[in-house]
Write a structure and sequence with these properties.
mainly alpha; 6 helices; Recoverin, domain 1; elongated; 3% strand
């Protein structure tokens, strides 16, 4: 009998690679004054793995597109390319985990960082209305 695959076995090598990168950040003196660094890195790793759809250790344009749509902030291809360029410094068309963590821990305010920070807050404060939409008549239309 075959077990259903939840991606766990495929993700094990990637998890190990990202954990190694996290250790590098933990040992980096540039980030020694960062509060709760270990916890932040664990969250970043989970988020990154969630959107690294091909488990190759990089987030491509379509993955960023899906991430933004899932967060309720869809972007055009041009906006997505600009975000990736901002994160990578324009040298790559995919976001590596090192780039991702550097942006998230960095002092500059990147679009991706802002979106990731506000993802949870937006989901909490904007509950989706349930039930059918309210009835409207012709006079109420703009």
């Amino acid at each position: 009998p075959r077990r259903p695959s939840g991606g766990g076995l495929r993700r094990a090598p990637q998890d190990g690679r990202l954990e190694e990168i996290n250790k590098e950040f933990l040992c980096d003196p540039k980030f020694s004054d960062e509060e709760d660094l270990e916890e932040k890195l664990a969250v970043f790793k989970e988020k990154y793995m969630e959107f690294d759809l091909n488990n190759q250790g990089e987030i491509d344009l379509m993955s960023v597109k899906r991430m933004m749509e899932k967060m309720g902030a869809p972007k055009t291809h041009l906006e997505l390319k600009k975000m990736i360029s901002e994160v990578t410094g324009g040298v790559s068309e995919t976001i590596s985990y090192q780039d991702f963590v550097s942006v998230m821990l960095g002092k500059r305010s990147a679009v991706l960082k802002l979106v990731m920070m506000f993802e949870g807050k937006a989901n909490e404060s904007n509950p989706k209305p349930s039930g059918p939409p309210p009835e409207r008549d012709i006079a109420s239309l703009p």
